[in-house]
Amino acid sequence: MSDFSAEAMGLVIREHRHAQDPVITQEELAERADYGKGGAVSISRIERGLISPGEHRLAAIALALALTPEQLKQEAEDRTKALAGQRGQRPGKLRDQVAETKRRHAQITEKAAERSKITRGDAEAFNRVHDVVRDEFFLRFVELAESIVGAPEPERPSEDEIESVDETPTAMRIQAMSAGIANAIRGAATGSAAGAAVGGAAAYGAFTAAAFFGTASTGVAISTLSGVAATNAALALLGGGTLAAGGAGMAGGVLLLTGMVAAPAAALAGAGFYVVKQRRNKREEERLRSELEAAEAALNQSQPGFDAMIDVMHRATATMEYVHLHGTHALEKWRVSLPPEPRDWESLGSEAQGRYREFLTAAGCFLAVGSINISALLTAEPDTLSKMNKVNDETLRYVEKTIKSIV
Predict the structure, then answer these.
(1) 176 near 157, Cβ under 8 Å?
(2) Structural domain harbouring 244
(3) Quick check: 61 pLDDT over 60?
């Protein structure tokens, strides 16, 4: 676990950015660090201590500033200790203590509000593009696939493969999800219950349920293919519930995640009366300071999980945007190349058959990204969070590479 605060890292990065000759802007640093569209906003959040960059982002920022990640971390650790020392020095006079406490109250309140604002904004951005890709790529592919009679059953991970590893690799999990989608497509084509829910979020819920809760030919539940408990914790259990009601997978309930500031918000609210008082005695001042320290500690404790959540949402949104831009176009080209209905598997030809398999894999990738459990990141203990970050990073890297190779 890192020994530096987000505030300290932000100060160090800002100072090094200003120390460049000539001084570089936040936009220029974002471009050099390969942040992509809207990267200056992320740099601003980092420098204000609202978020702390993950390992791969920190490495890119360090390179852009002609430093190593280790140098940035060490400077941030030193600054963290210096800031803690400054805050430990309380003014002697009560009047000065009150002024200092009011300043800290305003600072912590602003950070809690900004964190909530970031969560809402990033979740809404993900939800928007997720829903477009769901409707224009995933469900459109399902519709086309249902019109093909005799498509072969995809290969599934064998029981021996599942039992031979502690944590099922991303490729195997996506392979299992794709097989579940294919089974649901065949069920829909033959009029079974899986295909009864047609159109929109209800159909999406039916197919995600099949992908996660269907069974392999060996009788092993596909939902068990996510491996050990640490991996399971990184996957959302999707089904006919929230999704069928129009939810949006990974970030479907993320607007409720402002609960991550529940503890500091309660402490700040309880302290509010004393802050606005024109006069307060030493006992009241001590009580307020204690509540503010509890609020600040709660925010700091959840910082690593919050940073992980924001990083995942940014990367997931970028992947969804790529699918929207390129995947829907590739799918339309495939649709135009298909023979007229009724169509069977053999009538497609080898190229169109190959595209079917690729789009099925892409559909599995879409579900894998949409199922990352955001809320679990915020509440995970350090060791569990580290494992979840590893699984999520592997999933996103695999999906990014696979999607780009397909579309």
Answers:
(1) yes
(2) 111-257+302-406
(3) yes
